């Protein structure tokens, strides 16, 4: 269809108008009906939650409290993750793959410090199939020794190599180790060529799986599924889940912050991470401190707006060193948090930028912040928290974590409210307390150039 | 690697089994491998991918014992001697340690071939 030039824009607008109205209405209706809220339930003492988003696909996840923090021996969480979607009592790994390929589904598994997540994404009508599959994986996987030797170990070694080749991941694992020693300090994957193989055998992994996938230790979370449907299928398929393991228990030891410094030589990049005690995650209750999330946004380092250095204090401080990149994140866990300032880039620039970063931290700690900056940071922190909750992956995991620890899903509205209520005084107090404790510092890269924490003015 | 066999048919029928067992026991003893300290599964030809994979999947202790039995049997064969009776394989020791693994691998291969050649009918 060819339209005269003068008519075209108006015609196009006329065509688009009704469509735009429809989408707007849907957006408002969705927000008003509260469909971002999770509905929750319990079947065979397995917690589950879902929210019905207006979409054609569903994301279903089993979140288990079995990340590297809880593993009894090195590499167990990693091995358990890699055993996901391997052969079960009912069908082989190949059949699982082929069947989900035919349904157009996507299967994945990952673990981090706290959680092990098995995730399936698929068309809405295939919910029963994938609920059954995930239930089968956690209760009926065979954990054969030949799969361990032929496939799992191989992928674990590749992961280890990937980690060893990445200065950023090395530094992140190292700074957690320095800050928390055991528990949260355990590296997510094997970080050195230490023989993790000697700890792992198929029977031990099978025993650990009974503890990791025990009823009280998992949560089923769905995005884009009808709650009644999910309730029905969870009730049907999750009745075979184990109650506990006779060999291992998931120990929930309280985390203690230590602090200190570690330096690792590395040939392919430079990273320096300065870390301070941070805020735990929102679902944790009393140790959640929204002001630290605001402080992380205030320190920042990365801009959220194109062609501008942004308002954040660290991006201003590091503006003279364009080859160094600064970013601040509050890594939230169930009972602790770590506020990390990551500086990456050229070693000389990192050396100078790290000094500037510490000077900026000190000026914040002495109360030298404008209220306008705090307002901006509050808005940004609120936006980031809401957006993270809205994104499927982070939302699923946070919800699962909340369900397991205190049967409370991750309701993003409440989180937004809490961050919105943070006052300037709270942020200043939090900033002051930041430098009172020992910092955790980790440098990876060219150690001849990268400074020691003492030299840039940090107490470790 | 497992060929066609009448054994499952016979084993399913108790009356036929009780007929055949004495003959089977006599045959196994007469074939002589037990006097060299071997087990029946040691005689499976290993020059193919299936059995090679099955051998890799043996537990370390089983694999070690298998090599020991084979070497001892070679040595006996070279020296034209039989083992002393107390070292010969007893009928109750002559268990099937490799066959189940071979059968599992064959099932895997068969499933793979079946899945590769399946035709899909759309849901109506």
TrEMBL record, chain A:
Pfam families attached here? Peptidase_M16, Peptidase_M16_C
Give the UniProt keywords, A-Z: Electron transport, Membrane, Mitochondrion, Mitochondrion inner membrane, Respiratory chain, Transit peptide, Transport
Where is each Peptidase M16 N-terminal domain found?
52-181
- Respond yes or no to whether keyword Amino-acid biosynthesis is given for this record: no
Report if keyword Membrane is assigned.
yes
Compartments reported by the entry: Mitochondrion inner membrane
Family annotation (Gene3D superfamilies): Metalloenzyme, LuxS/M16 peptidase-like
Domain (Peptidase M16 C-terminal): residue spans on this chain:
200-377
InterPro entries per UniProt: Metalloenz_LuxS/M16, MPP/UQCRC_Complex, Pept_M16_N, Peptidase_M16_C
Q: Which family does it belong to?
A: Belongs to the peptidase M16 family. UQCRC2/QCR2 subfamily.
**Protein name according to UniProt:** Cytochrome b-c1 complex subunit 2, mitochondrial
**Topology with regard to the membrane?**
Peripheral membrane protein
Coiled-coil segments on the chain, per record = none
TrEMBL record, chain B:
Pfam families in alphabetical order: UCR_14kD
A GO cellular component annotated for this chain's UniProt record is:
mitochondrial inner membrane
Q: Which family would the database say this protein is a member of?
A: Belongs to the UQCRB/QCR7 family.
Job description of the protein: Component of the ubiquinol-cytochrome c oxidoreductase, a multisubunit transmembrane complex that is part of the mitochondrial electron transport chain which drives oxidative phosphorylation.
Protein's cellular compartments: Mitochondrion inner membrane
Origin: domain of life = Eukaryota
Q: Which InterPro entries match?
A: QCR7 (IPR003197), QCR7_sf (IPR036544)
Q: Which keywords does this Swiss-Prot/TrEMBL entry list?
A: Electron transport, Membrane, Mitochondrion, Mitochondrion inner membrane, Respiratory chain, Transport
The UniProt entry lists membrane topology as:
Peripheral membrane protein
State the protein's name.
Cytochrome b-c1 complex subunit 7
- Swiss-Prot/TrEMBL GO biological process terms: mitochondrial electron transport, ubiquinol to cytochrome c
